Amino acid sequence: MKIIPPKPFTIEKGNRAVLLLHGFTGNTNDVKRLGRFLSERNYTVHAPLYKGHGGDPKDLIETDPIEWWNSVLEGYDYLRNKGFDEIAVAGVSLGGIFSLRLGEERPTKAIVAMSAPALAKNTDSLQERIIDYTIKYKKLSGTFNEQEDQPQEIAKKYVMPKLSYLQGIINDTSAKLQTIQTPVHILRGLRDDEYYCESADLIYNSVKSRIKSVKSFINSGHILTLDQEKELVFEEIYHFFEGLKWKE
Questions:
Q1: What is 9-121+169-243's CATH number, 3.40.50.1820, 3.40.1410.10, 3.90.226.10, 3.40.50.450?
Q2: What is the pTM (predicted TM-score) of this model?
Q3: Which residues are known catalytic residues?
Q4: Predicted pLDDT of residue 3
Q5: I want to staple 30 with a disulfide (CB 3.0 to 4.6 A). Which of 22, 74, 84, 176 is the partner?
């Protein structure tokens, strides 16, 4: 089976711009429905695809997390070059912590951080994501071998040496959260791992924004934009953006 690789997408509508950021081992499909929802309400949206994501896992493990971050900066600059001087950002999982990092380094109208990792931990769970991604990719592409592609075998063949650097980016971003004064809305799913729920509390308590809030979704897991309460998530993000004072 031939897999059609996901691509970056842009939907140009109104004068309000939102940068949408996907997660680690995810792709722009993580935020495509959210993008359509916002564009239907007169927001211009752009979602970059991180280098190495959305295709063969061999391409992913050969990339560097700094290249993913550069994809975020390129997405931000794309909107700036389009003439938008007010840019909000919304990201899920790794996209959530990248959204906060962007708020630390670039002018942002507002930040929505969904299921963002913010606490220090080892890289074992990140490596497990690589394994899961590889197995899923092989099954979709028709190359999965029941004997050769057991998780323990995948773990030997698909090792990403830069995962510790990725955790370092997360830790560094968390250490600078107090520099953020942009409005921040933090979303979490209560069926997600406790690590992400605790991360939401850390983010809320650390940012210095006068406008900041946390919203929990009882029946949702990690990728809020794809889970069963996604329409509620979209509405929540839209109303948060609508409550801001934009230049018209």
A1: 3.40.50.1820
A2: 0.94
A3: 93, 192, 222
A4: 65
A5: 22
